[in-house]
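Bit of a strange request maybe. I'm writing a small parser for structure token strings and I need a real example to test against, not something I typed by hand. Could someone generate the tokens for this chain?
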Amino acid sequence: MLDNRTEIVEFYKASKLEIVDRSGDSVLNPPPWVDVLPSLEVYRERNHRRLDSRTFDSKCRQCIWGCKMPVEITIDQWKPETKQYRTETFCYGPKSCELYKAGPTRKVPGIKGMTWEEEDWVDEDAVSHREMDE
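Reply from user aminoacidic:
Good idea to test on real output. This should exercise your parser:
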């Protein structure tokens, strides 16, 4: 059964997919990049930056580097069963992408009304191993 807190799509498994058209080399085309998706290892290696949800909806939804996924938040480390869920948008694309717009900083609720805010340096550090065009 679909859990809307943790699943973005109803159907996520497919088999026997076939490429019926390739529009050329996506590296030479401007963003958004549309091509065959890279492996999960490539995404993990690249790491992500937060992406403005309106930018994702209007410009990056079809890009192979744009991503919308559920995020599980543990509110209290001493009570790990207490969780909240939300959907966030991310970009795995080149740091030089002209369409990229950072979303608001992530704010994570904690115990007793406390909030932790993830600063910009966290995203910058996550992709610091990449050059501007990779």
